[in-house]
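Human: I hope this is not a bother. Would you mind checking the protein record under this note? Thank you for your patience.
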Amino acid sequence: MFISRITTVARTLTLATMIGVSALGAVTVANAQSAASVSSQDVTFLDGMAEEGITFTSPEAGVELAQHICGEFGDGASFDEVAAEGLENSSLSAYDVGYLIGGSVAVYCPRYTDELPA
């Protein structure tokens, strides 16, 4: 039980750190394309998020968040659990959290497509 709480707190802090808000000076995808550590797959993800107005504190933070989402599914979390974590730890709307989860799965872990609501 105690270890579960520590894991939950760590995940919460990780998610809260990675999601950026434009008012806090989030980096746009235009900057992502110039970052050397960002792959073409990452640019696809970041471009998709930017089209919906979802930005991150850095391109790397956006990619890490997407990979975190995939890791949550890999650990057996349901869509509702991942979405609840996103809503609790960000200022994103429910729609944007769903879009972020769907984009993450589509680009980085399509094996979890069946976990997404129809």
